[in-house]
Amino acid sequence: MLMSLFIADRRRRQRLALLVTALLALGLALAARAQTGASYLLLAVSGDVQLGASGQWRRASTGMRLGANDQLKLGDRSYAAVVVGGARTVELKNPGIVTMSQLSASMRAASSSVTSKYLDYVVNRSTSNRLGNNMSNLGAVERSGMSPMPLSPPKNSALAEASTSFSWRSMTGVKSYVFTLSDDEGNELYKTTTADTSVTLDLAQVGVKPGVEYAWKVANARMAGMPSDEIVFNLMPEAKRTEVSRSVSELQAELGADESAVSALTMAMFYADQGMNDKAMREYERAIAIAPTVREYRLMYAEFLSSLGMGSYAASILRAGGITPPTKGGK
Fold first, then answer.
1. pTM, entire model
2. What is the pLDDT of residue 244?
3. Three-class SS of residue 324?
4. Distance CA 246, CA 274 (A)
5. Buried b vs exposed e over 191-225: b needs ≥16 C-beta within 10 Å?
6. pLDDT in tens, 243-271
7. What is the largest CA-CA distance in the chain?
8. Which value, to the nearest 10 degrees, does the dihedral of the CA atoms of residues 258, 264, 266, 272 take?
9. Cα separation, 227 vs 250, whole angstroms
10. What residue ranges in 107-185 does DSSP mark as E strands?
């Protein structure tokens, strides 16, 4: 009787061991399948970037989808941005070879729906075959070149801070400028003459109220009667500022503190979606400063500027990257 119980118990332990082994094997298989099935998308490339697949190398290009066993080989001064699973990104800048399945250690998961939403915007714009086709007014010359070009805040900006800097492009030979801030009825709230190309104001102190439209313009002091176009803006209401601040904190926590061009573009997309065009401009310019040779990033910024009527500035951004601005009609 005891012997029978012993044998039965041993068999149960053996079956349990076999079950545990089978479960472990299944777990490893599922993990391997998940890794193999992960999607890898080339968000942007610049320089000498080669794709290695099935033992052969060929030039990599934006929008390519890669497998877990595929490799990227970067030459000197080259760049590649890879999106994994639609929610994680990594930027490659160092020369060498990397296998897609090895990237996970250097990637950060983006669990937030907010982060995923704006990263999707970046992916969709960067990989679109129509990127750069929506810039029909790049040849426009503001006020025939007789007045300074307003830069920031651009038109229709929702400003989050009462302390704001208004800036414009300098003009050759011009020694001073006239800056004017008016309400929606054309009444001047503030006016000054300066040799600088910017003016910083506490908007509350000059009578600007949240949720109301105001406008600013600038002129060559010697031709004050020919100012720039008026740039309309508003100061964001407190409730909206609080809501945006929470979203910004969430995005920044997930994107991390590293200087990543993709992170900057994600923030640019978020700010543009909130109507915070001044902050969107700064994030686009930060992305370009981090990855100045990436054609797609400059085109994305130029399209954004063009949508704000800043065609000449958009053209200068493209030319600085060696890109010929499209002619009228976006062709």
1. 0.78
2. 94
3. coil
4. 13
5. eeeeeebebebebeeeebebeeebbbbbbbeeeee
6. 999 999 988 887 776 678 988 999 999 99
7. 113
8. 150
9. 41
10. 150-152, 157-159, 163-168, 177-183
- For 7-39, letters b (16+ CB in 10 Å) and e give eeeeeeeeeeeeeeeeeeeeeeeeeeeeeeebe
Q: Is 6 exposed, middle or buried (0-12, 13-18, 19+ CB in 10 A)?
A: exposed
Q: Can you tell me whether residue 195 is helix, strand or coil?
A: coil
Question: Residue 225 half-sphere exposure, CB side, CA atoms within 13 Å?
Answer: 0
pLDDT tens, position by position, 280-314? 999 999 999 999 999 999 999 999 999 998 988 99
DSSP state at residue 210: B
The mean pLDDT value for 176-204 works out to 96
| Dihedral angle of Cα 239, 244, 247, 253, to the nearest 10 degrees | -120
**Contact yes or no for 109/195 (Cβ under 8 A):** no
| Measured CA distances, 242 to 149, 246, 282, 321 (Å) | 32, 6, 21, 37
Tokens representing residue 303 in the block: 């399209």
CA–CA separation, 267 and 301 (whole Å): 13
Give SS3 for 20.
helix
- Residues 72 and 96: their CA atoms lie apart, in Å, by 8
Closest-CA residue to 304 (of 152, 199, 184): 152
**Which residues, listed in sequence order, are joined to residue 200 by a DSSP beta bridge?**
165
Average pLDDT, the chain: 81
pLDDT at 16 over 70: no
Please state, in angstroms and rounded to a whole number, the distance separating the CA atoms of residues 120 and 160: 25
Residue found by looking up tokens 């020919």 in the block: 226
Structure-token match 């399948």, residue found = 33
In the chain, what are the helix, strand and coil shares in percent, each to the nearest 5? 40, 25, 35
**% of the chain residues with pLDDT over 90:** 53
Bridge partners, 51 (sequence order): 58, 72
pLDDT tens string 24-65? 333 333 333 334 445 788 888 999 999 987 778 999 988 888
